[in-house]
Write a structure and sequence with these properties.
2 domains, 153 residues, mainly alpha
């Protein structure tokens, strides 16, 4: 690997905040892509160093590439744990706190209180799904099972 490619990959790595295994794989893919691009440019008549410099230039500025890759690959484990925990926490909150509170109110079926709590439940389900990009892939299933859990109480 050339010195210029090594510097570029180090700059990309400095901008990413991902797990070491993911970082290693991402940098390997970038290196292979840049080497392939440089080889194609060499076939077009450029020298070895010129073709690598052109391939790096075409790929993009290291800081921006690293920042974007970091956004794409960061915090997936933390978000997965939170996505699994949140429906359980909401269900337990409704079952052990809100339902006993409603039961102590007496004739709560005729009051607007259930509508308020249902609105809060829907809001609690929508906010994470709409604000956290990575949750959107499994959001339908997550919301369905959360609502089923709440409905079973």
């Amino acid at each position: 690997m050339s010195e210029e490619l090594g510097r570029y990959l180090a700059q990309v790595a400095n901008q990413m905040s991902v797990e070491p295994a993911a970082e290693k794989e991402i940098l390997r893919e970038i290196r292979v892509h840049l080497e392939d691009s440089a080889a194609e440019l060499q076939e077009g008549g450029l020298g070895r160093e010129e073709s690598l410099a052109q391939a790096i230039s075409n790929f993009g500025e290291a800081r921006e590439v690293g920042r974007m890759l970091g956004l794409i690959h960061s915090d997936s484990a933390n978000q997965a744990v939170l996505a699994a925990f949140l429906p359980v926490a909401l269900a337990l909150t409704f079952k052990w706190i809100l339902l006993p509170l409603l039961g102590s109110l007496g004739h709560w079926q005729g009051s607007p209180t259930p509508f308020v709590f249902a609105s809060l439940a829907v809001l609690a389900l929508l906010v994470p799904g709409l604000t956290l990009r990575k949750w959107r892939y499994g959001y339908g299933v997550w919301a369905f099972f959360s609502l089923v859990t709440i409905a079973q109480m």
